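Hi there. Long-time user, first ticket. I'm pasting a complex I've been working with (about 902 residues overall). I'd like to know whether the download I got is complete or cut off, because the file seemed smaller than I expected. Thanks.
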Amino acid sequence: MDHLDQLEAQSIYIFREAFARLKKIALLWSLGKDSNVMIWLARKAFFGRVPFPALHVDTGKKFPEMYRFRDHYGKEWELDLRVEPCPPIDAVDPTLPPAARSAARKTEGLKMALAKYGFDGLIAGIRRDEEATRAKERVFSPRGLEGNWDVRDQPPEFWDHFNASPPQGAHLRIHPILHWTEADIWAYTKRENIPIIPLYLAKDGKRYRSLGDQDITNPVASTASNIDEILIELEQTKVPERAGRALDHETEDAFERLRVAGYL
Amino acid sequence: MNMIVTPASPATPNGTTRPQVRIVIVGHVDHGKSTLVGRLLHETGSLPDGKLEMLKAVSARRGMPFEWSFLLDALQTERDQGITIDTTQIRFRTNSRDIVLIDAPGHAEFLRNMITGASQADGAVLIIDALEGVRDQTRRHGYLLHLLGVKQVAIVVNKMDRVDFSAERFKEISDEISAHLNGLGVKPTAVIPISARDGDGVADRTDRIGWYKGPTVVEALDALEPARPLEALALRLPVQAIYKFDDRRILAGRIESGSLIAGDEIVIMPAGKIAKIKTVESWPVTPVAGRQGAGRSVGITLDRELFIERGDIIAHVSAAPRETRRLRARIFWLHDKPLAKGDQLLVRSGPKESRATVVEIEKAVDPGELSSVENKAIGRNHVGEIDISLSNPIATDPYTENPRTGRLVIEVSGRIAGGGLVLSVDAGQRAVPVDIVPVESALRPDERSARYQHNGAVVWLTGLPASGKSTLAKALERRLFSNGGSPVLLDGDTLRAGLNSDLGFSAADRSENIRRLAEVATHLARNGHIAIVAAVSPAREDRAAARRIADTAFREIHVATPAEVCEDRDPKGHYKKARAGALASFTGIGNDYEAPQAAELVIDTSTRNVADAVHEIEQMLKTTGVLFDEVVDLAANI
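Hi, the file is complete. Here it is re-exported in full:
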C-alpha cells in the first residue's frame, strides 16, 4: 500500500463510520479541489453512490466556472444536490473585518440549512495543513447548539474511535480528509483522474491555489499549467496555500473567530 | 545541517514513496515541547515565507523575547495563557523520512488531547526539563506511551543551558527516566541533551555538549521505523456496515490485520457462521482480483446469505478470534467520575459496541506517582486493570496477539471516557470453530419445499407458563402434518430433559437454553422443516438472539393469555408451588416476563379456541411466505 492508498483507506473508514453512526448526514460541497476529492472518496466508500445529500451553501459570489462545474458534475455523479442560499451581508456581525464578514455569510447560510433539514452530521473537506486552527480539529468534531466549536472541550479520539453522539439539536462535523495535505490532494486527483475547475491551472502567469468567493479570493503567481507542474511547484514554494484568501490576513485571529462561531 | 528540504526529484514529484513516520512530542508542561517543534521546523527549512517575521511581530507586540512556541500555539487563547491546548500536526522531512509531527499538550487537564495525538503515533519524543527533572506528568506520559503501544521513544533532556550543560545532571535524569521506562517494558532509542531555544543537539552537536556522543534529535527521528505492517498477522476484518445499494449485498470494513482474497473460506464471529468470499467489490472497477492486505478499506460479498451485523469480525476459519462475554483490560480513565465496581458502561471494540458491567477493579494507579495504589476506583487520568462482563458476546484478541483488535474504548453518556488494551479473554462457552467445515445436505431447499408445500421456518411461541403454548404447538403440528407438511415440535421442557439437562435457571443458563433451541430449530428450518418451538423464553434479548440465529426464517408468536388466567389453569401445579415458595426462579409470578414488542402474531387463548388460533397462525404463515397458498404460488416459489 502506498501513501495515497493509506490516505484513501483511512478516509473511506471515516465515511463509513459517519454513515453507520449518524442518522441524517450531508456532505458539504464547495466545488473546490478538496471537496471534489471528498466526493470521489465517498463514491469509493459506497461503491459508486453517495447515499446522502451534497449541500452547496451558495454565497452567489462563486466564479462562473464553479457554477458550471457544479451543474455538470452534480448530474454526472448523480448527487442529491441541495443548493442553499446565504443571508445578505447586513445580517452578519458588523464588528468583523470586511472579508471575514463576507465569509461569515456562509456560516449563517450553513446554520439555516442545518435548521431546515435537521442534519446531525456534516461532512466537510477541511485539512490540518491548511490553517493552524484546522490543525487542532478532531475527525468527528462536535458543534454546540449554535453551531459553535468549543476548542477547550473537545472529546478524546482514541485510535480510530470517534465520538458520534451529538446532543439533541446539535451536530457533528466529520472530517474525512483531515489528514491529507495539499500535495496529497493533487497527487490523488491526478492518479484517479478526478475532474477539476480550470481556475487551478496557470493562465497568464497566475493561478488559484484555493477557491473561495470572487470578491475575497486572489490568484497567486504561477506557471503551473497541469497537475504535475502544480506538484513540483508545491515542493518548492514557501507561499502558504491560503495566501490568496483575504480573510486569513485581516487580523491575527480573524479565522479563529470565524471557526469558533461555526465556519468551516 | 542534517535535515534538508530536498527539491522535487522528477521520478517522485509528490514525494509519496518515502517512508512516513508519525511521531508525537510529549512531556510535562513548560518543558519545551512547542519550542522544540518550532526549532525543528526552522532547522529543516519547513517554515513558510513570512512566518518567522510574523512570529517576531507577535512576540514584540506582547513585549516578549522571540518565542518559537507561538508558531504552533496558534490559537489566541493559547497565546494568552502561554500553553498548548490541543494537538497539531505538522510535516517535515529528515534525510530519509517524511515526518508527521504531532504536537501534544502537556497540561494535565488536556491529557485527552495528548492521548488523541499519541494514539496515532509510530514513535515518540519525551521531553524533560534539565532543571526540573522527571515530573509526574513525565511519568504519566511514559506510561501512556506504553499503554498506547508506542514502542520507539527518544528522550530529550531540554534546557541544558539552564544547568550549564552539565554532563552529571544529564546522566542523573537519563538514569531516572530510563529506569522508569524499562520498568514498563519501553526501551528508549536515545537520550539526547539539547537546548531547543538555542539549537544545541537539535540538528547539530555543538561544542557546549561536546561530551555527548549520541545522535541529535534529527538523527534520532531519522532512525524511527514506520508502523509495522500488520499483514503477517491473522485476518481480522471488522464489519462496519452491510450495504445493499443494488443487487449486491456488500460487507464493508477495513482489514485490520492479515489479508484476504476471493475464494477464501471465512468465519463470521462471534456467531461462528462459515462462508466463502465470493468477490471483493470496489469502485470504479469491480470486482478486484488481487489479494487485499491490512489497512485497506474493502467490500466483500459472500457465497451465501447469512445474518451479519455491524461489529461482527470476519476471520479465516483456522485462526478466528475468541468469542467472549468476559474480558480483562488495562485502561486509562479520563472521566471526572471515577470508574467503580458495578458501573454500567458502553464498550466499543472496533465497530462493535456492547453494554458492559465492571465486575471488578483489579488495580488502580496514578501513573504520575506510582507509589500510591488505590483499589476501589480508577480516578480521572489514572490507570487500572478491570474485569468486565459484556451483555453481548464480542469477538476479540488479547492485544499481545493483535494490537489492532486488542483495543477498546469505554463510552459514558455518548462520549469516550477511557480506553485501553485487552489483556485476556475468557473464551466463553462456545468452542472456537477450528477446522469445523459444515457438511451440507444432499437435498436442495426447493426439492423439500416442492414436497411439503412450504418453506423451512422457525415458529417461536413465547408466553407465560400455562398460557397455552404447548397446546397450540401440538395442534399446529397436527394440522401442518395433515396437509402434507413437515412440522417438528421442540418443546422447551422436553429439550431440558435431554439436550439441555446441564442447564439450570440462572439468566446465563436461560440464555444458553434459548440459544441451543434456536440453533436446533434453525437447523431443521434450513432443511425445509417447520420447527415449532414452545418455550417461555422470558428475556427479550434472548429471543432477539434466537431471531438473529434463525434470521429470515423466524416467526414469533406471543401467546398473550392474561397472567391470572394462566395461574388459574396451572396444569402442572407450578404456580401453586411457586406461591408456596417451593419453586425458585419461576417465571409468571413477578415481573420477569418481557413481552415481545413486534411479534408476527399475538394470540390470547382466553378469548380464542384452539382451532381458531391455529387457523390464524396458518394465515400468518401464508402471508409471510412460509406456507404456499395455492399451487400457482408454489410454482412461483420453485
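A couple of notes from our side: Helices of chain A lie at 3-21, 33-45, 64-76, 98-117, 132-135, 182-192, 227-236, 254-260. The two ends of chain A are 31 Å apart (CA to CA).
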